[in-house]
Write a structure and sequence with these properties.
The chain is mainly alpha-helical. 66% of the residues lie in helices and 0% in strands.
């Protein structure tokens, strides 16, 4: 049972309905998921979260599918069932290799692509204990030619995933049935 109910579009303000529409369109979902509809009770929270998701996850220099893999790994490690399911669905929608999705959710160290693996491991370390990042961790990313803007995007992705995990877990969000369709 959720701790916070979803705010259905029929009960939402016009500003919130606009966020729902932008979210579902840009994220390629059939409708607004529980993640954003739970926040619909607060137009400020819904707009702020959507702006953050759009800026960090959807837009940017790194491909969205790469950031989705990071989201899956962080959510799996943190035990956030909702975010893990949501971002596995996003990975499927984006045609990510199913083996890579499974490895992101279970054993990142076995991801066969070394660059992706090291990017995800960096994101996990950042989400887990950002104070423990060392110069050597950054040098691993730089050896693949990652620029400062791309490294910052990885750091922001780790922060976004932790933020979303907290929202999903604190509200007791239930997984959307539409995730199974992807």
């Amino acid at each position: 049972m959720p701790h916070v109910s979803v705010c259905l579009p029929k009960n939402a303000s016009p500003q919130v309905v606009a966020v729902y529409e932008e979210f579902s369109t840009k994220m390629r979902f059939a409708s607004a998921p529980n993640f954003i509809m739970t926040q619909g009770h607060s137009p400020t929270a819904a707009r702020g979260t959507w702006d953050l998701v759009r800026s960090v996850l959807v837009d940017g220099e790194l491909p969205r599918w790469t950031k989705e893999i990071m989201f899956v790994a962080i959510s799996a490690e943190r035990g956030c069932r909702y975010c893990k399911a949501a971002h596995i669905a996003c990975c499927r929608m984006l045609k990510v290799d199913p083996e890579w999705i499974d490895l992101a959710a279970s054993n990142v160290a076995l991801i066969p692509d070394p660059k992706l693996r090291d990017m995800v491991l960096f994101a996990l370390k950042c989400a887990r204990a950002p104070q423990s990042l060392t110069q050597a961790d950054y040098e691993v990313l730089r050896k693949y030619g990652l620029r400062e803007d791309e490294i910052v995007e990885i750091i922001c992705m780790a922060g976004l995933a932790v933020y979303a995990n907290i929202l999903a877990d604190a509200t007791g969000m239930e997984e959307d049935p539409m995730f199974e369709a992807y």
